[in-house]
Structures are given as structure tokens and as C-alpha cells.
Specification:
Blueprint (H helix, E strand, L loop, with lengths): L3 E3 L13 H11 L4 E7 L2 E6 H17 L7 E5 L4 H12 L3 E5 L5 H11 L3 E4 L2 H10 L8 E4 L13 E3 H14 L3 H8 L5 E6 L9 E5 H15 L6 E3 L7 H14 L2 E4 L6 H8 L3 E3 L2 H17 L2 H22 L6 H22 L6 E4 L6 H9 L4 E5 L9 E2 L12 E2 L4 E4 L4 E5 L6 E2 L3 H7 L6 E9 L5 E6 L4 E2 L5 E2 L1 H9 L4 E7 L6 E7 L1 H10 L7 H5 L2 H19 L9 E6 L19 H7 L1 H8 L4 E9 L5 E9 L1 E2 L13
Parallel strand pairs: 2-12, 4-5, 4-6, 6-7, 7-8, 11-12, 13-14, 14-15, 26-27
Antiparallel strand pairs: 1-18, 2-3, 9-10, 10-20, 15-16, 16-17, 18-19, 19-21, 21-22, 23-24, 25-26, 27-30, 28-29
């Protein structure tokens, strides 16, 4: 028996504007003087109008053509969010090519696979750092013929003939355009909605990454659905700071910007995002749960350091907000006295707090990528920030479910988005169909055939269910859902997310499938736990030392026991309470292969790498020595070793018929 729900059917209000280059040119004609994109450089915001952006893209496109880029070629894009990197994406699309954004923090060897698999001939990169990475692996990538860099700083003494400044490429492009004025227009005219618009590589949690080919039609359909759903338009502003290689950035910062005509703002650097967020004051904002968690952690740390009067005011009015703030945001009836108190709280606490966070003007904010804790979700909504959850994957343009205004549930990802049909297979796997589905995995017809069933549904690999109001709830990855020795469901990601809801827990990995009880690895949050330790007068020399402190173990034990109490109230999960845990001696790191670049746990890799620790936990040992090789940012390797304590945790009797709040 399957359950199924679907959003509305497509209704294209912009017939003919069916590729990204055509959308760009349409904005240049219709709103040529409105700001299209901004970038903060040397502390000053630079702005480009839609007309100026279209001229820049034209110059880059013709310059790439001069370098030999042609229809069907793949163009690597590597760097932080920069206007000229976004323009290079559109320039490649004008020529019928396919941009392939790559994670800017990936080390050189990680880039090799994508460069080889995609057959990259030309790469457009941000700066010297990215150039150096490509030079390191160029001998392994014989098809890579040209490297184009945006930022010339530090490049003066590089003499290789295949290196080109983007300025010189654009200059050559303008000459090309002047001599062949109809060339680019003819290339744009050849573009079709079902052409591949972009290729995004999966995170590779279980194997080699796969290139997901998404068409113009798929991304534009998702963008139109999202813009219509949240009424995004040309007056909206957003901050673009998440990796360009991530599907969410392509939907929000690129596709939705080109559909709605909204303004994209690129921060000066990753370190200045919060400052830049306050200066821009976006109306539309996206961040993964970890960003919202870090912001709240910083707020609570600052409040702990504040004076007694300010602390009392904060906590009093936060109690008011928890009581009625979310209802006021959703337009629900609230007692007059509470409305008055909330208005006073907005003047004294919520308004200044939103201003400090840079969220004073936000109409809609989204989070996705992992479950967000109910308390965290409730906090932001209670102070008047319209935070919502969405659900999607790289293969679905990050677009499957959205939460409608006024129908926000803390534990769901909403209802099927416009144009999308969602149903559940007999085993609970979530199946989706709609115009936003991938065209194919690049050079992987086998994987493409395996991912889409005979009825045309993409098999997400996630397990979930619909509640009584038609909202989708995600349990875990279907392949990760197992059973304990007694037959109890074991959903590791579900438990890990509950652990990560605590500000002191940065990462968690749980084990228990086929076992009599569950265990957990914990990574502490160095900033949050460090601040807590300093207030208690505890001395420590770094992460490894802090993680081994008995008081820190007691702090984490309290978090784990609260999760166990919550699991005890769930009849499906009460048997998977955590009985033993340890705090890892090092932070899980993408450079060490333990996480993907999107910070997803590589569960199988960790289970193999730390097998001796897993064995020790299930065998009842109290300590276990471990020595681990680590890779530093400069490429050096080293080893970290420790005797790790393994602690027992209190578990609770199942509470039949009752769910924890």
C-alpha cells in the first residue's frame, strides 16, 4: 500500500524564457538599471545592474569561445561566491556548454576525479590558491588545456602559457564579439530547455561522486515553483555565501535570481559573512541548521556574559516569545495581554536581536540538509523570523517539499512543492516525480536506470511518512535504517540529529544495527564547550585535552540521557537508546575523509577507520587507545593519539502511548 501526494501542475507564465541566457537577456531589457548582483571588495560594496551583468557575461562567453570552448564542453568553476564566477556559468550556457562548479575547499587530489570524469578542458577559478591546486594535479588531467583566474593578486610571476587572467579573456572576447557580432546570438538561439544547464557532483558518501546533469527546464521549473510559492520578486535581496558546487546555491543564488530578478549579494569572505549579512539585511535567506545553531550559540554565550538586568530582560521576554511568538507570526489568535507584552519584547529584545543577526528584513528564511532541532526552530520563529524547512536533493534541484506559511510543523519538511508528486513505496522509501528531476548521471546510464523506477519516480533513498495533514516527515536514509538484535528499529541519522540539537555536540555517529544496544561517537563543539569550560575555570590545551576532561564527559552524558528520555517516549525507537558513548579525540574532518564537503558523515569509512573503538564499546571496555593519522591544511600529515574513556549512560523504560515534547 503506497501513500501519495502532489503539488499543483506547472503553469509557465514566461513562455520562451526557457534557458538561463534568455532569462538574463530578458532582465537586461525589462529592468536593465536595477541591481542584479553585488560584491563586497576591500570593505566596499560594488554593484552591477542587469544590463551591466549581461554585457559582462557576453564578454566572458566570447572570450571562452576564443579559447576553444564549444557546445557540449564542460567548464570547471572553482572559488568562493563571486559575480564573475556566476557570470562564467551563464557564459558557458550561452555557448551551449555545461558549467561544473567544484568545492573551493577541496584539496587538489579531491578535484582530480571530477576534472578527469567530466573531461574538463577549461577551468575558471577565483585566485592563486585555486590555480596552485590545479597546477599540482595538471599532469594527471591531460585534457585540462586552459586555466583562467579572476583575481590577479599573486599571479605576476606565473609564466605558463595556459594560464590566463579573466580580464584578458574578456578583452579578447569583446574583440571577438565586435568582429562576429551575430555569433553569440546564434549560439544562444540554439539553446533548448532540455539541454544540460549544469553538472553537480554528489557528495560521494558511499562511493565515487556522480555527476548529476540538470537541464534548464528542471532548474527553471523548480525556481518558478519556489518563487511563486514564497512570492519572490525583483525587490528581494539574498546573501550568496554557500558553496557554488552545492545544489541549493544553484537553486537560490542562480536559478531563482534569474527567474525572479532578485538581487544577489556576495560577501567579502567566509569570515565576514555575519558582518555582510547585517549590512545587506536580506529579505530571503537560506542557511543549513548548523549556521542557525552557531548563531544561537553565539547569542547565548553573549547573554551569559551580559549584566544581570539584561539577562533577566532577555529571559523574561524570551518566555513571552515562546508562549505566543510563533502564533503571532502565523496569524493565529493570541490574547491581548500577550500581544502587548510581545510588542514590548519586540522593542526591547527581539528587534535588536534580529538586527544583530542581520535578519531584520527577512520575509522568508529556509533551512535544509539535516534535521533542525525543535527548540532551535521554535526560537527563531518565536522572535518573528519566518524560518521554514524544505526537502530536496541534488537530483531534484533541492526541490521536493516546502512548508506553506501558517502551516509550519517543527518535525516535518512540509507538503509537496508546486509541480511535484511525492509517494511512499511499501518499504517507506520516498519516491518523487516532477519536472525538476535529473536528466541523467554523467556517463553512468547504469546509475541513472537504478535511480528512476519504471513509473518515472526518482527513488530518493530516504525513508519517511505522511502525517494526518499531508506533511512529510523524514526518518533516515532508507539503507541506514536497520534493526537491533531484538527487532527494534534503528535509525542512526534520526538519533544523531537529536544529539546534534544540543549546542555542545558538533557531530555524532551512532552504531547499533544487529546489536543488543546502541552506542555513539561524539564530537564536542570546541567554541561552545570551551566557553563553558572557561566559565568554570577549567584549563585545557586544545580539542583533545578538553574532550578528555571528566567534567566534559558529564556534560555530554546529560545530553545523551535527555535524548534517551526522548527516545523512550517513542514506541518505534525506545529500544535504540544509547547505552555507551565516547568523545572522539579529534574532530571529524572532510580532509581526513570522515565527512563529505557538505559535512555529511561517511558512515562506512568511519566504521572501518575506528573499528577498534566500536569493538571496545560493544565489548564493555572502559578505555581504548587509538592513534589516528590527520591531514593539516598545508598538506602535511601527522598523528593524534589518546586513551579514550568509554562511559555508560542511563536508559529509560518505554513510555507507551506518550511522545516527548
Amino acid at each position: 500500500m503506497t501513500a501519495s501526494l502532489s503539488g499543483s501542475t506547472p503553469d509557465d507564465p514566461s513562455a520562451g524564457l526557457d534557458t538561463f541566457p534568455r532569462l538574463l537577456l530578458a532582465h537586461a531589457r525589462a529592468r536593465g538599471e536595477r541591481p542584479a548582483i553585488r560584491e563586497k571588495d576591500l570593505g566596499i560594496w560594488q554593484s552591477w545592474t542587469w544590463a551591466e551583468a549581461a554585457r559582462e557575461v557576453r564578454g566572458i562567453a566570447c572570450g571562452l569561445a576564443e579559447l576553444g570552448f564549444k557546445r557540449g564542453d564542460r567548464l570547471a568553476i572553482i572559488g568562493d561566491n563571486r559575480p564573475r564566477l556566476y557570470w562564467s556559468m551563464c557564459a558557458a550556457q550561452m555557448l551551449g556548454g555545461i558549467p561544473v562548479p567544484m568545492y573551493q575547499d577541496a584539496v587538489a587530489q579531491e578535484m582530480t576525479f571530477v576534472l578527469q570524469d567530466a573531461g574538463i578542458h577549461i577551468a575558471v577559478v577565483e585566485d592563486q590558491e585555486q590555480v596552485d591546486k590545479l597546477l599540482e594535479v595538471k599532469d594527471q588531467c591531460p585534457e585540462l588545456r586552459h586555466i583562467v583566474y579572476d583575481e590577479p593578486r599573486g599571479m605576476r610571476h606565473y609564466t605558463q602559457a595556459f594560464l590566463h587572467g579573466l580580464d584578458e579573456v574578456v578583452a579578447a572576447g569583446r574583440i571577438h564579439d565586435a568582429n562576429q557580432s551575430d555569433f553569440l546570438d546564434q549560439e544562444i538561439a540554439q539553446g533548448r530547455p532540455d539541454d544540460v544547464a549544469i553538472m553537480l557532483y554528489t557528495s560521494g558518501t558511499t562511493g565515487k561522486p556522480k555527476g548529476v546533469c540538470q537541464t534548464h527546464h528542471a532548474l527553471i521549473s523548480a525556481a518558478r515553483g519556489g518563487c511563486g510559492f514564497d512570492k519572490l520578486g525583483e525587490t528581494d535581496e539574498m546573501l550568496s555565501y554557500l558553496p557554488m558546487a552545492w545544489v541549493g546555491d544553484n537553486l537560490f543564488s542562480y536559478a531563482q535570481a534569474l527567474v525572479a530578478g532578485l538581487t544577489v549579494n556576495c560577501p567579502e569572505s567566509g569570515d565576514t559573512v555575519m558582518t555582510d549579512l547585517r549590512e545587506i539585511g536580506p529579505t530571503f535567506y537560506f542557511a543549513p541548521p548548523r549556521v542557525f545553531e552557531n548563531l544561537l550559540t553565539q547569542v547565548m554565550i553573549r547573554m551569559e556574559d551580559a549584566g544581570a538586568l539584561k539577562r533577566r530582560l532577555f529571559h523574561y521576554f524570551m518566555d513571552v516569545a515562546k508562549r505566543c511568538g510563533a502564533d503571532i507570526l502565523d496569524g493565529k489568535p493570541v490574547a491581548g495581554a500577550d500581544r502587548l507584552l510581545y510588542a514590548l519584547g519586540n522593542l526591547l529584545v527581539y528587534g535588536p536581536l534580529k538586527n544583530v543577526l542581520g535578519m531584520s528584513r527577512i520575509r522568508v528564511a529556509y533551512t535544509a540538509g539535516a534535521a533542525i532541532g525543535p527548540d532551535l526552530f521554535r526560537f527563531y520563529r518565536s522572535i518573528g523570523i519566518n524560518l521554514k524547512q524544505l526537502y530536496g536533493q541534488t537530483e531534484t534541484c533541492a526541490y521536493v517539499c516546502l512548508q506553506p506559511d501558517g502551516q509550519i510543523k517543527l518535525d516535518s519538511v512540509g507538503k509537496p512543492a508546486p509541480f511535484v508528486e511525492v509517494k511512499l513505496a511499501d518499504n517507506g522509501e520516498i519516491l518523487v516525480k516532477g519536472p525538476m528531476l535529473l536528466k541523467a548521471y554523467y556517463k553512468r546510464p547504469d546509475a541513472t536506470a537504478e535511480s528512476i523506477n519504471a513509473d518515472g519516480y526518482f527513488m530518493t533513498g530516504d525513508a519517511g511518512f505522511f502525517d494526518e495533514d499531508g506533511h512529510l516527515k523524514i526518518i533516515d536514509r532508507a539503507k541506514d535504517v536497520g534493526k537491533m538484535a531484538d527487532g527494534t528499529m534503528f535509525a542512526p541519522n534520526y538519533i544523531e540529529n537529536k544529539l546534534k540539537f544540543f549546542q555542545h555536540v558538533k557531530e555524532a555517529v551512532t552504531f547499533g544495527a544487529g546489536k543488543d544496544f546502541a552506542t555513539a561517537f561524539i564530537n564536542i563543539d570546541l567554541e561552545a564547550v570551551g566557553n563553558w569550560a572557561e566559565k568554570k575555570g577549567m584549563a585545557y590545551s586544545g580539542y583533545t585535552d578538553l574532550a578528555s576532561q571528566p567534567a566534559v564527559y558529564e556534560l555530554i552524558r546529560d545530553c545523551v540521557e535527555k535524548v534517551n528520555a526522548d527516545l523512550a517516549a517513542d514506541p518505534n525507537m525506545s529500544g535504540s537508546q544509547i547505552r555507551r558513548f565516547l568523545i572522539l579525540h579529534k574532530e571529524l574532518d572532510a580532509d581526513d575523509g570522515e565527512l563529505t564537503r557538505t559535512r555529511k558523515v561517511r558512515r562506512n569509512f568511519i566504521a572501518e577507520k575506528y573499528g577498534v573503538l566500536i569493538e571496545a564499546m560493544f565489548e564493555g571496555r572502559k578505555t581504548q587507545f587509538i592513534e589516528t593519522q590527520v591531514k593539516y591544511e598545508d598538506g602535511r600529515t601527522g598523528k593524534v593519539s589518546a586513551d579514550l574513556r568509554i562511559e555508560e549512560v542511563k536508559t529509560f523504560a518505554p513510555q507507551a502511548g506518550k511522545r516527548a515534547a
